[in-house]
Design brief:
Elements (H helix, E strand, L loop, with lengths): L1 H17 L3 H7 L5 E6 L6 H5 L6 E6 L9 H13 L4 E7 L3 H7 L7 H4 L1 H9 L1 H5 L4 H22 L1 H8 L5 E7 L6 E3 L10
Parallel strand pairs: 1-2, 1-3, 3-4
Antiparallel strand pairs: 4-5
Bound molecules: zinc ion.
Zinc ion binds next to helix 5.
Length: 198
Amino acid sequence: MKELLQRNAEWAARHIAENPNYFKRLSEIQRPHYFWIGCSDSRVPANVIAGLEPGEVFVHRNVANLVNPGDLNCLSVLQFAVEALKVQEIIVTGHYGCGGIAAAVDGERHGIIDHWLQPIRDIAAHQAGELENLADERARLDRLCELNVMAQVQRVAETPIVQDAWKRGQPLLVHGLVYGLSDGRLRNLGCTLPRPAE
Ligand SMILES: [Zn+2]
């Protein structure tokens, strides 16, 4: 804890040296353009990998970046992001090498998390034909990471919160990205909603 507080003090001092109003300005407004739904994995911090400053992205993270219709935590954050903050882009971000995705389909028992990960097993079963044609286990898990992101984009779009925003004519896009742990790059999965004329 001592080291963490020391690092924080250095970080704050660095920002104040660059801009004396840095924290004053941040404390007065929260107007993020983006809402990020990502994995809890410590290697995928939203601000850092997207190169965004505090105040620029509103964040919700859970194991395997899932949007479950019964998850009051996720839905509360989503509603606040859309209706109060009026974010303009929602980004569901998965990552290759996701432990949650692997645990969902490894056939082992892990405890409570097996219930949380059930939607991923459903996606794997639904897309079994495509997944079985891939060369090896690694390729299958990577593709399942992508399919999971696409499914969560669809789920976000289907929530009454997002449907109502679109009905009101509020500008709001939902994107799906996947992050590569080995190269630090975000890839656009091309599943943005709404599509033109939809
Ligand atoms: Zn993960």
